[in-house]
Amino acid sequence: MKNSRSKIQLPRGCNPTGHGICYGDTDVLPEKATLPQMVRHYQKSFRPRLKKRLKAYRELTWVDALTNAVHGKEVDENIKRMDHLRRIEIKAMDKAYKVLSDPKTKLKSCKGFDALYTMISEVVFKTKGLGEMYAYDVALRIGANLKLKPKHVYLQRGVRVGAEKFLGRRCKERFLKCSDFEPGLKGLNAAEVEDFLCLFKHYPALKNKA
Prior knowledge:
Layout lengths: L6 E3 L18 E3 L4 H11 L1 H12 L3 H9 L2 E2 L5 E2 L8 H11 L12 H12 L7 H15 L6 E2 L3 H10 L7 E2 L13 H10 L4 H5 L2
Antiparallel strand pairs: 1-2, 3-4, 5-6
Helix pairs in contact: 2-6, 3-6, 5-6, 7-8
């Protein structure tokens, strides 16, 4: 029998089932933490970091934001590759950058996050070695620079795992509404719900919503 006080260490990076906003953090919570405890922990320990990373992208020039986002880098402190994107080959990112940086792609003309994410995804899915997790990471950061925020919770990799556990069903949708995760995750915006579902996908209470 497991000790009721045993803890789960939040993942370093998010391989193999993770997503974009990971911090290499070593914060721990009791394994039997309730959903409200998990939400409070997220708001205290992880929400500020997400805001900090996106703020850093918002303050970059367009060229620097595009270059760093497409090459999978965080820029809030030291510019470095995101842990969960380290396995992606540079040449794959370079191919995506060549297309996305072409003025003909017209990323800056997007009027909303969904249009931006769709445009980036179309390029990413045609590039060998890249996938949906990478597409969301790039879109979220470029979106921050363009002041375009996601209004829906986009499902990919670990986020889908967390969403399926939370909702108790298979999730084949491209995205879900924030309201689908209420009242449990009420108070978190779309990007934060996406972040939360990936980070806490292994916690039992995510399934029980209690």
